[in-house]
Design brief:
This protein is mostly beta strands and about 130 residues long. The chain is about 10% helix and about 55% strand. It has one helix at about 1-15, and strands at about 30-35, 40, 45, 50, 60-65, 70-80, 85-90, 95-105, 110-120, 125-130. A hairpin with a 4-residue loop joins β9 (about 110-120) and β10. The longest helix is centred in the first third of the chain and has 16 residues, at about 1-15.
């Protein structure tokens, strides 16, 4: 019984004596820019829109991430409606990093799409919505 009272007090004392140091990497990553495009040229998205024809064949999810102070990863999760169509793991290697993933689009895949951008722990950073007509 006595331990039930002593243990919480000891835990509090340890927390006060040895506070957890917050490192720069624990600062959240930020999505500084994110778009859907028809191509990427020299890390610059081209043909940016939120509506594309069914003849598009391939789309790119471009993301500029800021705030990484060490190598980490993000994920691009491509959804057609509620169905996960692709999971793409992308490295982030500097404080201001541009990266992208691509997805082949078949003519019959018309309707609502989205790309969820998450950090390596699965925390949602941003969602890009677009339509294939």
């Amino acid at each position: 019984m006595l331990w039930n009272k002593i243990l919480p007090v000891m835990a509090l004392m340890l927390a006060l004596l040895f506070p957890t140091k917050v490192t720069a990497q624990e600062e959240p990553l930020k999505v500084a820019e994110a778009v859907i495009a028809t191509s990427i040229e020299n890390l610059v998205p081209q043909g940016v829109s939120d509506t594309f024809p069914s003849s598009v064949e391939k789309l790119y999810a471009f993301t500029r991430i800021t705030g990484a102070t060490k190598d980490t990863i993000i994920w691009h999760l491509w959804f057609y409606g509620d169905k996960l169509m692709a999971e793409v793991k992308l490295p982030v290697k500097s404080v201001n990093w541009r990266t992208y993933s691509s997805k082949r689009i078949f003519p019959g895949w018309t309707g609502e799409w989205k790309v969820d951008i998450t950090n390596e722990d699965g925390l949602l950073l941003e969602t890009l919505y677009f339509t294939i007509e």
